[in-house]
């Protein structure tokens, strides 16, 4: 009787320990990281893929995404500590550096490598599009000093158009309201991201006639960045974050636009699947999505040229001042 009771107690103890060990294995500890994206766009498809496919979770990160419309608002959120990581144009880190910030903002993973906007005409253009046709038109532009506006001006100048002398340039409309302003009748031309450009084409509100991404060349257009102090305290998490982004970049390149569109659909609930597919396809065809999170020096110099042309650069900034490629290079080495 004693032996039987002893055996039962031993068995119960073994089951209890096994259950405890199983519970420990199942409750993987995660670290929260708050991202602020400058806008919601198919342009950022790899980010949504990383979230939907669980690539961040696989790295032990609990990522919280919020949209902080506009580069100035996104940077304010980062500097104030409202977010940990910003997804915004690399030019914003240069603006902070130019202001002499003691805690510089560092770019650590590139997401897009071309301008993501398209030139949309209100009227359908018969025959081949000629940039010369923009002269004396009303152009609904983007915020002064923002990457879309600077890349747009750079392209116009390349085609012999002075945006401030040859156009009636409108720049006083909030970033989030530009599409609505054009839809309501403001401007003959406008710069739009996807999927809005494709939506306007379907609705007959506009026609895509050119790509600013193709025209302005490769540059670190949208980058994940954070404060230098955050990197110093969270190097392991920044590496994990970058690993997940690179995995998502690879996934987008290796899958069809249809598969990517289905994956990111939860972030565009009011957008039809065929619009998402055409938007992803358009960005893939012009090489908008960066295949690697590494910021290349040649692309960085092109960014500086564009900022200099727009009169927004006090002095050329060496990449090392605001770029930390160590995490991106490590991610690529681990998953070539």
From TrEMBL:
Signal: is it a keyword of this entry? yes
Q: In terms of domain of life, where is this protein from?
A: Bacteria
Q: Where does this protein have coiled-coil stretches?
A: none
Q: Does the keyword DNA damage apply?
A: no
Q: Which SUPFAM superfamilies match?
A: Periplasmic binding protein-like II (SSF53850)
Q: Which UniProt keywords apply?
A: Signal
User: Which compartments does it reside in?
Assistant: Periplasm
Primary subcellular site in the record, as a coarse category: periplasm
Which family does the similarity line name? Answer: Belongs to the bacterial solute-binding protein SsuA/TauA family.
Matching PANTHER family: ALIPHATIC SULFONATES-BINDING PROTEIN-RELATED, TAURINE-BINDING PERIPLASMIC PROTEIN
Full protein name: ABC transporter substrate-binding protein
